[in-house]
Amino acid sequence: MAHQQSRDIVASVSAVVIVMSAYNIELVTGNIEFVLIIALLASILFLLFQFLFKSKPAHAEHSSSVAASSLNVDSVKKKSPPKANLQTPTNSHVVPAPAKTSSTVSPDKPTQWSLQLLQDIDWKLFVELCAHYYESLGYLTKIASAGENKSVDIYIYKTNKPNKKFGIIKCKQWRKLVGINLVKALSTVQSDEKIPLAVFLSSSGFSKTSISFCEEKHLKLISGEQLLDQISKLPLNIQQELLTKAVQGDYTTPSCVKCNAKMVLDTNNKSDKQVWRCQHYPKCKSTMYLKANS
Asked: Where in the chain is the domain with CATH 2.20.25?
């Protein structure tokens, strides 16, 4: 590049000298300083014009390359398949799928134990939960059929003596404390049939008189909080199995105490209040008030 510029300068000076020589050879030889000044100015002008003319093409070339690059990028973008829109439109009615969990419990149902859960589930499911709990301890269980014995809900047996009653269980899925009368009724069955073990499980708890009554008897009272504490000591997989069984199906709708069928909401004609009635009503007239504690 420098070599080329040097040659251009020499050529320019030579051209000026030749032109002036042709014009007046004597003037050239007599005033050498004037000739050098003219040659220097000519060289500067030549270099200036050369710089201007060369910079414009270079700038144009750079612009062309940038435009070509942009064109290539745009063409690549046009050829690339459009990406899926990951944002759900605000007016979309598509419901996102629930996240997968290791739990077998449905996402819209409780995923952990609580006292509120014990007091909300169907009384029949509470009885079945108590039976499953004792099965997890290694006993055999049998739930009493409707009307068999109102004082007993579950019979338990040892695995080595499946035909001999080892214990009896009464369950009450209440929000109020269990009174002494029901506890005495269970104690009477235990005494009459000479059964070694008797257990009363309540989702709430027991009155002070009930607790005092059982102090010197082989009758164990277990409140909802105590039951949850005992369940928490079981292996995690057993805890999960019990929870799954406790909230299966329509777990908050009560069952009929006479035929075990699920009840339906109805309106009491006299009080104009909603009540639970057996789905076989009026054939089965079992009725339960929504705010009743029993």
From this structure: 253-294
What are the start-end ranges of the E strands in the chain? 140-143, 154-157, 167-172, 197-202, 219-222, 263-267, 274-278, 287-289
Tell me the HSE value of 77 on the side-chain side, using a 13 A CA sphere: 6
CA–CA gap between residue 50 and residue 34 (Å, rounded): 24
In this model, does residue 126 exceed pLDDT 60?
Answer: yes
pLDDT in tens, 136-176: 999 999 999 876 678 999 999 999 999 999 999 999 998 89
CATH node for 115-252: 3.40.1350.10
Residue at token pair 């080595």: 160
Amino acid at 276: W
CATH 3.40.1350.10 domain range(s) in the chain: 115-252
CA–CA separation, 284 and 6 (whole Å): 119
CATH class name, domain 253-294 = mainly beta
What pairing do the DSSP bridges indicate for beta strands 197-202 and 219-222? parallel
Closest to 262 measured CA to CA, from 241, 277, 283, 242:
277
Span 238-256, mean pLDDT? 92
Give Cα 177 to chain centroid, integer Å: 37
Q: Give the residue from 181, 169, 190 showing the smallest Cα distance to 127.
A: 169
Helix or strand (DSSP H, E) at 5: helix 2-23
